[in-house]
Structure formats: C-alpha cells, structure tokens
C-alpha cells in the first residue's frame, strides 16, 4: 500500500471516529434529558406537592450548627442556629439534585437567611446573603482577614442582620466593621478577636465600644480578645478620651479577655459600660482588680436584680483561691438575689471558697449552683458541707458538681492509700459517687444533683433522693 492510500484510510477512520463521537455525545445528551423528564415525573416534591408544602420540606432539610451550650445547666449567650456551609448538606445539597429543585431552592429566601461560613467572606458569601431577600439574617463567619468595604453586600444588608458571630483576625477588619455601620435590628453579637500572636497587636477598646453603640437594640453580646501588652488599647486621646457608654437594652453579656502575662494592668471593657437591664453576666477574672471592675459595673448600673452569673478565673489567678473568695464576698454583697451561679475556675476550687458558699447568709435565693473543676484534694469536708448547706436553701433546684480528677489524697479510705495519684481514675470516681450517694440518702436532699467528670460534665450522673441514672 502506498503512502497516499494509507493516509486516505487514516482520514476515513478519523472521520468515522468523529462521527461516532458526535453521535455518542448526542445520545448521552438525550439520555440526560430523558432521565430528567423521568425524575421530574417521579419527583414527589416539585410535581405532586403545592409549592408552599415543598418549600417547608426543604426548610426541614437544612443542617444546622448546634448552639455551644448543650447541657441543661449551661448558660446560653447565643441560642441561634446557623446553617452549615457544606456541599454535602442542605441547602447547597438541594441545588445539586436537579434543575427543578435548584429553581425551588433559589426561589426560597428563607433557605438562605442563615450561614456558618468557615472562612474569610468572599463572593460565595455575598451571593448567599443576596438569596435571602428581605428576611432577617443570622451570620457566623470564621477568621475574617480582609477588611470589609462600603460596597460589600454585608453593609447593603446590615439592617437585616439580627445575629452575628464573627472571628476577627486583624485590627483593620474590626475598624472597617464598626465605623460606617448602624446595626438597627441586631439582637445577638459575638466578637471573637483573635489577632495572630506573632503580631502581638491589642484590640482597641474604642472600636468595641463603637460596635456596641452602633447596635442600640442589642440584647445578647459576647466579646472575647487577647491582650499581649499594655499599649494599643486606646488611640487618639487615650483612655481618658472615652466616656461611659450606656446601653439600655443589653440583657446578656459575656466578656472574656486573655492576659498573656501575669500582673498586667490594663483597662477592662467593663470599666466603660453602664448596663441597666443586664440580667445575665459571664466574666473572666485574673486578680482582685478585675473582680472590682465587675463590682463597679454592677454598682454603676444599679444591678441588684442580676439573676445569673458565670464566673471564670484565668490561669494567672493565684492558686490559693484568694481571687475566687474575694469575688464571692464582693459579688454576694452587690447582687444578693442571684438565682443562678456557675463557677468555672482555672485552678481547683479551694476549701475556703467552698465554705463561704456553704454559709446560710450567702445567696439564699439560688435556684441553680454549678461548680466546675472541683477537686477537693485532701478531704470531703468542704464538698459535704456545701451539699448539706443546700438543704437549708429552699429555693435550690439543681446542684451540679464537676471534677477534673480524683487524687489518692481525696479520700480517707485506707483501701485507696496504696493507689498512685493518677492510677485507676474510675475506681476513685466510683468511690466518690458512692460517698455522695450516702450523703444524699442520709439527708433526703430535695434539689436535683448532677455529678460528672470534666468541666463540661461528660457522662453525668444524676442523684435525686435515692434515684440515680446515667446519661450520655
């Protein structure tokens, strides 16, 4: 065969392959069209149900990020649920099923009114918010590193935002967020300011105050940030240039600042607030001065009616418990009608603080008392005295005792004397539960008593009278 003949045969074969490929592509397109028609006929959602009912079914499919507080004795500061941003979860999963479902999902604004966006907001984030139409928005965004611009969809929809949980990674983001805005309908705000440690920048409190001022209808607020040094807390005229901010609607405040060096003297956000309607307060204190900032806030705001207090101590607070004892004394005098107290110390609660809580003239109206990181390392006396004191509190409905470990010196049982401190944790824990059960049965306790391991109360046991049950 000549070269010309071979080339001609090759061309004919290529043409035949191209023709067959075209036919195959057309056949595949016809198959997809037919499959869509079959799915449309069989689709129980878009073809057999009214649009209103199909929409409600779609709404029930949305996957939500659960609130951070899960136990009945936890104090929630943001009870909003945020829809998951994940292609394998609704609503994104719904738009990938078929064109009919995609059309219905895009025509349902309520599917897009909430988002838990894991990264710096981008074009996808903006498109999501635009789909929500006029409905109120609940937004949670993680690690924002790019400052917002006035042209951002976020600012265009600012009046629709009712809940916002934001992790701020740099000072320009915080500045761009608060200065040109007016969050008229914002009810819940969470600012987690997490500047990189290597930059050692310190949040300017004036910007945080500005954020609160821009949200006059705010009822729930959480502010958390770290402080690496004493400078940078205020700009311009400095601390003296800021006046007290009165916020008339804020009811729940959680304020946590992390000091990376002990002994730092820095202003607290609480020093610049007056909150006359505050009913729930969660604070972290590291020394007596920070306790005094809390007490002064309560005095300025005339908050003798505060009913819920979550008190956390930092790693820099002294290990002997003087800070916690000072907090109990000062706060008991300022808010005597407290009904819910949750104590979360970094170091184990000391006997002196426990004995102060056991007094019959301290917080007699308590309905719930939660003690975390509770490790009486040498005796059961403080624990038992507190539980016995509960009998003298007719209002007490729930007592929660959570411990982190059981040392060998926790008990006076000779049978445990030979066990090393960190050995056989479950055995010691079981002895502790049995000892407490004896106290409960002997004294006919009325309150519901929760016992558990870890500061979050994993594997709680509930002792109520002589009834015990295990819950996961």
Structural commentary:
- The protein is an alpha/beta fold.
- It is built from 12 helices and 18 strands.
- The strands form 3 sheets. It has a 14-stranded mixed sheet, with helices on one face. The chain has a two-stranded antiparallel sheet with strand order 1-2.
- Helix 7 links the parallel strand 6 and strand 7 (220-227).
- Helix 6 runs parallel beside helix 7.
- The longest helix has 40 residues, at 3-42.
- The chain is elongated, with a radius of gyration of 30 Å.
- The chain starts with a helix and ends with a strand.
- Keywords: Coiled coil.
- InterPro entries: LRR_dom_sf.
- It comes from Mycena chlorophos.
- Residues 3-30 form a coiled coil.
Task: Detail the topology: elements first, then pairings.
Layout: H1 3-42, H2 51-60, E1 64-65, E2 82-83, H3 99-106, E3 114-117, H4 123-131, E4 137-144, H5 153-156, E5 161-168, H6 171-178, E6 188-193, H7 205-213, E7 220-227, E8 245-246, E9 252-259, E10 273-274, E11 280-285, H8 288-301, E12 308-313, H9 322-334, E13 340-344, H10 351-357, E14 368-371, H11 381-391, E15 398-403, H12 425-443, E16 448-453, E17 458-464, E18 467-470
Parallel strand pairs: 3-4, 4-5, 5-6, 6-7, 7-9, 8-10, 9-11, 11-12, 12-13, 13-14, 14-15, 15-16
Antiparallel strand pairs: 1-2, 16-17, 17-18
Helix pairs in contact: 6-7, 8-9, 9-10, 10-11, 11-12
